Amino acid sequence: MIWSLLKSRDPLEPTLAAGSILLPQETRRGRLAAAAVPVHLGLSVGWAVVLARLRVTTPLRGAAAGVGIAALDLRVVGRLFPRIGALPVLPQLADHAAYGATVGCLLARRRR
After folding, report:
1. Strand ranges (E), the chain
2. Three-state DSSP class for 86?
3. Is the distance from CB of 62 to CB of 101 less than 8 angstroms?
4. DSSP letters of 8-75?
């Protein structure tokens, strides 16, 4: 969101892009934003399960895994969904790395 504001872009752009995964033909912002909730929740929980199974239990490993997830999301999913592919790469990498680091940290705490 901060990147979007600094670059005079729509701060809801990533949210609307996530909603387009569930509703690819939709253009109404409210419906795309609503569709983004289950999409993002499902992806976040799903990737957390994968990271737990892979025993990614440090923030550093989690951040590295997050960058890997971003590469997959932006390269594979981005080709299938134009709104995902149109997102700026750098803030998406940072967001995914932060997500991975957070999951890694939480999994580390869980192991104690």
Report:
1. none
2. coil
3. yes
4. T--TTHHHHHHHHHH-TT---HHHHHHHHHHHHHHHHHHHHHHHHHTT--SHHHHHHHHHHHHHHIII
| pLDDT one-digit tens code per residue, 38-61 | 999 999 999 999 999 999 999 999
Give the span between the Cα atoms of 20 and 40, in whole angstroms.
Answer: 11
What is the mean pLDDT of the segment spanning 4-17?
Answer: 85
Closest C-alpha among 106, 109, 112 to residue 48? 106
Overall domain count for the chain: 1
Tokens 């592919």 belong to residue: 85
Question: Do 40 and 16 contact (CB within 8 A), yes or no?
Answer: no
Token pair for residue 25?
């033909």
Which residue segment(s) compose the domain that 13 sits in?
A: 2-111
Distance CA 90, CA 100 (A): 15
Say if pTM beats, i.e. exceeds, 0.90.
no
Q: Is the dihedral of CA 90, 94, 95, 97 positive or negative?
A: positive
